[in-house]
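=== RUN LOG ===
request id: a7f3
mode: sequence -> structure
chains: 1
length: 266
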Amino acid sequence: MKFGEHYHSVDTKSTGIQLNQWFNIDAGVNIREAELKILGAILPNLFGYHIVQLGTQVSEEFLKTTRISHKVLVGSSKELEEHCNVISSCEAIPLESNTIDVLVVPHILEFAREPHAVLREAERVLIGEGHLVLIGFNPWSLCGLWRILAGWRGRPPWNGQFLSAARIADWLKLLGFEIEFLKKTSFRPPLNRPSIASKLWFLELLGAACWRFFGNIYVIVGKKQVAAVTPLKASWRTRRRMVAGEVADPTTHVRRDVSNEGTFTF
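=== RESULT ===
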């Protein structure tokens, strides 16, 4: 699939509730902890005046380590209203352009009808050199395998469209972002039995050392680049005249207005 294509969408209302439930039960707890840990290392180093978190997985817990004082939570369904400041589609964010310093987007693209539209909105609302922090499920992981096996049930997160980190990074580059950070983490299978999952703690160490590509989630930090304005250079003839002390002949369409000394009329 190419940039600009449509992806299948899911019911945002039920997805938000069920996804939050999944992250609070045994299968999703380890992944949520991995996300919070990596955000805890990233957010303290991103500065500005305004930070916004989008989506269904809205929680002040995600932004607790930021040093930015003004925090806004934008939820994508009315059922999240009590946890959010604003309810809105992530494909049409009700924020002014070039106003946000940091935008955190956890697990939105997997369930969006037009994930590239979400990224375009992110680019629009961010200030120049503002930062976008994206979290997504890695299709090349144990979670990706679980999606293949359990996707037919139609329940989050397995009913989402897992997009690879490489594809998202390519899309961001097309929108003018510079990829500053990309990391994959969380290597245990998403089991509902905590007794078994706890015994597999060593997979986190092995995964980080040996198979980083197969982490269950990825975190991408992109910086919105600002086009540099390059001043025009004088031609070699002009430079030669300046060095030699010559004066260029006046053009015929410029005359001195003596009635208003100090100005030129064209």
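=== NOTES ===
Residues 12-224 form a domain with the Rossmann fold fold (CATH 3.40.50.150).
Residues 44 and 66 are 5 Å apart (CA to CA).
=== END ===
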